[in-house]
Design a protein that fits this description.
InterPro entries: CDC50/LEM3_fam
Order of helices and strands: HHHHEHEEEEEHHHHEEHHEEEHHH
Main location: membrane
Membrane topology: Multi-pass membrane protein
Radius of gyration: 48 Å
Organism: Helicocarpus griseus UAMH5409
Shape: flat
Structural class: alpha+beta
Strand content: 5-15%
Low-confidence stretches: 1-29, 60-79, 99-105, 497-503
Helix content: 25-40%
Protein name: LEM3/CDC50 family protein
Length: 503
């Protein structure tokens, strides 16, 4: 028998040595396996060549296509493959790389051995991340819902009543002076139209205000002389007003909440930084960025600063009897403290910037050393204006007195009339007012509370009556949807409707 017959048959025999002293290599089990794999590979290769040859012979034997398939032509036998027993000729199976984790351990983010290969995206095992937080889902029954309606109504209605009462205790005087520059008489004052004022005081002794106008020259800061229409309002305070006393101006039909208007400013400018011209040219201050004549950036740029309310108010002067004493009111402390911290004195030099178009009367020659740009940190009237209102009718604080009582009597208030509301069909008014712990005079919040409380009480009464007259049994299966779609007898017997209508 051939000495390799055992190897070729795949039998695993123990290693043996020859009896002679010649050096014979040791044949191991691994060598058996390698020889077996090599023979199997050679056999498969022969089978493939045989099938290829048969397919080629099925066509014409003299075709070049068939002859080109095998070297030496179809009539010659192909070269017989030799048996290569080297280890390099034997294919060794390799492990495929894993693309996904195949066990819970592989997904563990704390598994150090796979931390570099795979990072788990599984949420942390916490109550919040795994949505296991405790929750209370009350069962809505008449015993829980009906008392809730009455409780809300009983709480909201009195609160609303208190808010309405607090608003009614605010004393205020509203005078519309929109037409003063056109209709008020020159010289002696005359009564205003009744619809142009509104008063709310504890005392009912209210008289109609008077008005007049005059033309004068005002010397503005920087030595600029400006012809000015002065509107003088004469009004009566029927009873003492306890401090604090506030002076507001109120505008109507002015949409400060327009999107283009609201974003038309540069915060860095307002913070006092000397923003370069190139940045201002691409800022949100459109359309008021760069002055076309001087090619200088506007300061402050944007629509909000350009349209600032520029009517000037004096302190009310008492004109009753022999007294002509002013009731001193100041424009300090009228802006929010957070706003005041935002605005800083500018780092610009006067020759680097140009005032907005609507400021040309105050700065006819632009900014100069004698008439420098305003210090925005101290200009609280501008700070109040820059905080845009959410509605087209709004009031903004202009003056205040937190220490002195405004005694009953007659007063005169002079207003330098510059702001043109006729350009957009609006109105402007002054409001002299006190306040309470809930703010100024505005009954809306109280009315809203009363309405909500009343609705809850009415709904509670209606549902209580319905529950007493025709109560509904809790957990009654007859109210289920599928029980209403077919007879209950069919559902109980298990019979169901079919497409054909049969059983």
């Amino acid at each position: 028998m051939n000495k390799h017959s055992g190897l070729l048959s795949g039998d695993h025999q123990p290693p043996c040595r020859a009896q002679s002293n010649t050096s014979t290599p040791i044949v191991t089990t691994t060598t058996h396996q390698l020889l077996f794999y090599s023979i199997q590979s050679t056999k498969q290769h022969k089978d493939r060549k045989k099938r290829t040859k048969n397919r080629a012979l099925s066509g014409r034997p003299d075709t070049p296509r068939a002859a080109d398939r095998f070297p030496g032509g179809l009539g010659q036998s192909a070269t017989r493959p030799t048996l290569d027993l080297s280890l390099s000729a034997i294919p060794i199976p390799r492990a495929m790389p894993r693309s996904e984790p195949d066990s819970v351990d592989d997904q563990d983010p704390h598994n150090a051995k796979d931390d570099k290969k795979f990072r788990s995206r599984r949420p942390a095992n916490t109550a919040f991340r795994q949505q296991r937080l405790k929750a209370w889902q009350p069962i809505l029954t008449p015993k829980t819902v009906l008392p809730l309606f009455f409780i809300v109504g009983v709480i909201f209605a009195p609160i609303g009543g208190l808010l309405i009462w607090a608003s009614s205790t605010v004393q205020e005087l509203v005078i519309d002076y929109t037409k003063c520059a056109a209709e008020a008489p020159l010289g002696d004052p005359q009564e205003m139209n009744a619809e142009d004022f509104h008063a709310s005081f504890r005392s009912q002794d209210i008289s109609t205000p008077l008005w007049s106008r005059s033309i004068t020259n005002r010397t503005l800061p920087g030595g600029v002389n400006l012809p000015t229409t002065v509107c003088s309002l004469y009004f009566n305070i029927p009873n003492d007003l306890e401090p604090s006393v506030f002076l507001y101006y109120r505008l109507t039909n002015f949409y400060q909440n327009h999107r283009r208007y609201v974003k038309s400013l540069d915060l860095e400018q307002l913070k006092g930084k000397a923003v370069p011209k190139a940045i201002i040219a691409n800022s949100q201050c459109d359309p008021l960025r760069i002055d076309p004549d001087t090619d200088k950036p506007y300061y402050p740029c944007g629509l909000i600063a350009n349209s600032v309310f520029n009517d000037s108010f004096s302190s009310p002067v008492s004109i009753g009897g022999s007294r002509n004493e002013p009731y001193n009111m100041t424009n300090k402390g009228i802006s929010w403290s957070s706003d005041k911290e935002l605005y800083k004195k500018t780092e610009y030099k006067p020759d680097q910037i140009w005032p907005p178009p609507n400021w040309k009367e105050r700065y006819p020659n632009g900014y100069t050393d004698d008439n420098p740009p305003p210090n925005l940190h101290e200009d609280e009237e501008l700070q109040v204006w820059m905080r845009t209102a959410g509605l087209p009718t709004f009031s903004k604080l202009a003056r205040r007195n937190d220490h002195e009582i405004m005694e009953a009597g007659s007063y005169r208030l002079d207003i330098d009339d510059y702001f043109r509301v006729n350009l957009y069909d609006g109105t402007k008014s002054i409001v002299i007012s006190t306040n309470t712990v809930v703010g100024g005079k505005n009954p809306f919040m109280g009315i809203a509370y009363v309405v909500v409380g009343g609705i809850c009480i009415v709904l509670g009464a209606v549902f209580t009556f319905a529950h007493l007259v025709k109560p509904r049994k809790l957990g009654d299966h007859t109210y289920l949807t599928w029980n209403n779609e077919q007879p209950s007898t069919a559902a109980a017997s298990g019979r169901d409707a079919t497409f054909g209508g049969g059983a």
